[in-house]
Here is the input.
Amino acid sequence: MKSRVNKAEVAAKPRAQAPTRAEAQCACGAVALAIAIPAQWAWHDHSPASRRIHGAAYATYVGAWKSRVQFLRGEDKLTAFAEPGGVRRFCSVCGTPVTYERNRAPNNVNIPRALFTSGTGREPRYHIAIDELRDWAYLGEKLKPLKGFPGVVWTGGRKRK
Ligand SMILES: [Zn+2]
Here is the structure.
């Protein structure tokens, strides 16, 4: 079969290339960074400290090599909180947790997965402190619409702790 596509046209067309970096930003946008992808790893952190810092059942992080993290803006807007295991940095404007550096991994920076606007080349396949998983965390139970509340779904009337 003869192709109807002009060879010159094909050559001029840019090839779709896999992304080489992923960008992340805080809620207000004052702080933004990029990491080279694929990231080092990704993990769920169920530790009480991360639970409280995020105000969520658990935190999901993307771990990156420090040398492969580049701030695009707002690094000077970060404020730090030192804890026994490391240092966490937040956007001083909106409070979003932006980085978590653990003392045990000095060449690594963990960035909340939720801050990224695209894939990071790593799925979160690891769990830290899984024994701290809360019994109120949503684990994919079947949900159904709540009558009279558009957009609200619930698990139904069975008893929960
Ligand atoms: Zn912010």
User: Anything to note?
Assistant: The chain has a mean pLDDT of 91.
